[in-house]
Amino acid sequence: MEDESLKFNVVCIFFRPVKMISILILATVLTQVWSEDCNVRSFPTGTVCVCNATYCDTVPKLDVSTGKYQVYTTSKSKLGFYSEIAAFANESTEDAVTVTVDRSKKFQTILGFGGAFTDATGINICSLSQEAQENLLESYFSENGIEYSLCRVPIGGTDFSTRGYSYDDHEGDVTLELFELQQDDIDYKIPYILKSKKLTNDQLKLFASPWTAPAWMKTNKGWAGIGFLETEYYQVWADYIVKFFDEYEKHNISFWGMTLQNEGINGFVSDALSRINAMAWLPAHMNKWIVQNIGPSIRKSAHKDLKIMVFDDNREALFLLHPLLNNETVMSYVDGIAVHWYWNWMPISLLDVVKPYLDTRFLLPTEACNGDGNDISVVKGSWERGVKYINDIIVNLQYGASGWVDWNMALDENGGPTYIDNYVDSPVIVNKTLQEFYKQPMFYALGHFSKFIRPGSVRLDASITGSDNDLKAVAFLRPDNLIALVVFNK
User: Fold this and answer.
1) Catalytic residue (choose from 249, 263, 316, 384)
2) pLDDT tens, 1-48?
3) Residue 241's domain spans which residues?
C-alpha cells in the first residue's frame, strides 16, 4: 500500500461477516455519509471542535450493506468523525497492509464504555445555557453522538466536589435515621443522569463507587489521609451503601453494579501527600466485610442483582487483591474486577493474576484521565492525550477487558472544580464565559470505541501483516451481526 492511503490516525470499519475475512485497507470510495462537521478551533497546544447553543458536530449514520464497508475516520489534521462507504477490492500490492479478522476465534463480551457523573461534571454542564447543555449530553449519549452506555456515579463526595461530604455527617447515627442525599446530588448528578438515561432509551448502565465512609466512622476522623473503617461500623457502612441505592431508586435511577472501594491504596497515604478522599482496607478486613456485611446486605436487599466489583485501584496496589482472589467465599459475591489506568507504565501483565477468574467474571477499567499528578492539568486539543486513550483502550481490550470508563465527562478550563486543587483533563472542556464547550481529541478517541463497539459485542481475533508495527487493531462482532474493526495508525 502506498503511504498516501494511510492518512488516518484512527478508524472504525464496518462490514457484514463471513467466517474469516482479510481486509486490505485499500478501496474505491463510493459515497460520503453526511453529518455536521467539526467547528474547528486551534490553540497553540492543539485543535478542538467547538460546540455551543446553536451548533455541534455529529457522528454520521451507520448504513452499510453486504459487499461494502463503511469507514469512520479521525485524524490529527481532521478532527471529528468523517465517514465513507466503499466496496471491497480484490487487488493487492507488494507492500499491502492486511488485517485478518477470524470470526471463529471469540473472546470477551463487551459491557460498555463511558465516563463518570461527578459533581464537577454536573457543575460544568449546569454552567451552560439549556441548549448548550442539550448539545453536550447528546454528544455523549444520543445516536448523533458517541453513545456512552456504561457510566460511574460516586457514592457521596470525591476530590471533584466543592467540599468534603457524606450522606450522614451526624456522629453516632448508627441507625442512619439522618441519612439524606445532598443538594450536590439533587442539582448536579440526578438531573443529568435522568436526561442521559432518556437519550439512551433507558439502556444506560450505571455503577456506583464509594470514596470514603463518613469521617466519624473512620480511625482518622477525616476525608483523606491514613484511615480505616472502625470495626464497629462494618455493618453500618454496608447499610449506608444499600441506603444510597434506595434513595436513588426514589428518583427513578437504578444501578447495574457497584465497586466496593475507590483506590483504597490512597487510604494508606498521609494527607500531606494525598488529599484525595479515601479509606484504607487491609485484605483480611476487606474479606471479612465482604463475607459478613456488604455481600449479604446487597444480596438480601432490593438491589440483589447488582454486579459487585472488587479492587477498583491501580496496578501497583495488586498486592491488596491476592488474598481476596484466593478466598472462595469472598469470590462467591464477586462478579467483576475493576482497575484504574494510573501508573499504567507498569506492564499490563501484572494483571495476569486475575486471568484465571475471567471465565466467569469480567475485567473493567473504571477510571482514567490525563493531567494527573505533576502533569499539566488541561492541554487544549492535545492529540497526544487522545493517543494515550487509544493505546490504553486497545491494550485492555486485547487483554480481555469488557469495556473502559473515563473519569470526569466535563471540566472547566482549569480542570475543575476540585476542592483539593487536584486539577486534571477531560474529553470535554467547558468555557462558561463564552458559553461553549470543546471536544478534545480524547473525546473522538474514546468515541471510536463507545460508538461502534456496542454492549453485547464479542471480541474476535484480529491480526495484522505488512504493517511494520505501525498499526494496532481490535475487531468485534456486534449484536446486529456487523463486524466493527477499530484500526489505529501510529
Assistant:
1) 263
2) 234 444 557 778 877 665 555 554 433 444 667 778 999 999 999 999
3) 111-218+237-257+276-452
Q: What is the pLDDT of residues 285-296, one digit of tens each?
A: 999 999 999 999
- Residue 94 catalytic? no
What gap in Å lies between CA 327 and CA 438, rounded to an integer?
47
| 282 vs 268: CA distance, rounded Å | 10
What is the number of domains present in the chain? 2
From the candidates 84, 367, 384, 413, give the one annotated as an active-site residue: 367
Query: How does pLDDT run across 125-166, given as a tens digit for each residue?
Result: 999 999 999 999 999 999 999 999 999 999 999 999 999 999
Same domain, 49 and 174: no
Q: Are residues 415 and 485 in the same domain?
A: no
Do the domain assignments include residue 314? yes
Cell triple for residue 282?
487491609
pTM value > 0.85: yes
CA angle 367, 445, 376 (to 5 degrees): 60
Q: What are the phi and psi torsion angles at 414 (to 5°)? A: -90, -15
Q: Which helix (H) or strand (E) holds 285?
A: helix 283-289
Residue 141 placed within a domain? yes
